[in-house]
TrEMBL record:
Keywords: Signal. The lineage of its organism: Bacteria, Pseudomonadati, Bacteroidota, Bacteroidia, Bacteroidales. Transmembrane segments: none annotated. This is PQQ-dependent catabolism-associated beta-propeller protein. It comes from the Bacteria. Residues 1-23 form the signal peptide. PANTHER family: DIHYDRO-HEME D1 DEHYDROGENASE (PTHR47197:SF3), PROTEIN NIRF (PTHR47197). Pfam families: DUF5074.
Amino acid sequence: MKKNRLSLLFFYLTLTFAFTSCSDDEPKPEPSEKPFAGIYVLNTGSYPANNSNLFFYNSNTQIATKDIFNAVNNQALGKTGNNMIVYGSKMYIAMTDQNAIYVTDRKSKLLKTIETLEKPRYFTSDNGKVYVSSFTGVVACIDTTEMQIKKEIPVGKYPEQIVISNNKLYVANSDYTYDQSQKTVSVVDLTNDTENKIEVAVNPAYLAKNSAGNIYVLALGNFYANIPAALYKIDASNNVTPMNITATEMTICNDKLYLLNTVYDETGSSSTITVFDTRTDAVIPNAFIKDYSVFSSSPYKLSADEVSGDIYITSQGTEGGEVYIFDSNGNLKKKMSTGGDYPVCTVNVR
């Protein structure tokens, strides 16, 4: 009988604890915020006008917001937005002729303006840091926690795109001044910031890295000297191999290079997009875009989303910038007006 009383007492105590723990006085968890996901497009604007802006398409609500940076911050973006990157919880926007880097949260709320670097151009990220090239001949390293530049690494003249592979920073030293002797990619060992230069071809501007760590360089040549643009590969031993492809823009997605080649003549311009498999170093024979008439004007810039495999192609239409979203098979999924001129960069937030 005593044992039964003890069991009954334990039952009541347990029941009382259970009701106390789940009472209305216990704080309830707040409902989780609906995920903020979508696509940002940076419109560089019409040079030298002060009219760069930022477009956002929310993939959850399917609502497009033009000039979202101004709407969120009550502040115009500024002059000549050139590139942006999302890294961790922050987004970084390079404003070349504003001589500024905006650091925002993922909803484009301005957290800090970095104004200690002139002419910022292109970003890359690695190991908790964001790197940005500058036309002053350096690549700056940004501490993402303190949101300030920690060091500047000297490289070549007018550096453009940058990538990191195997703890080495690769920098395309461009031919912005049409100096035909400018043919190098800087390779910086990030353990000690020592730099070596590799000669490729005139006016290297764009870089891409595949999963094997090979670097692909698009050298834009010199139109006035009849030097065509060309693609090159730099392997882990810094051997340079020509790929025998001409292009004017490129992006990489899941080891495939998407190469845009636009040709101008007295009648206008024409564009083609070639897909190049970096695992085999061979062109994929099937045409990526089946019908170029979907574009209001010639394709302008390329970006990609590694997660979905989508390819973003921008153009400058008669009524402003446009972004076209294609799946990996070249099927058009969506077309949107970006609410600005000359969209140059597209990034995803998830």
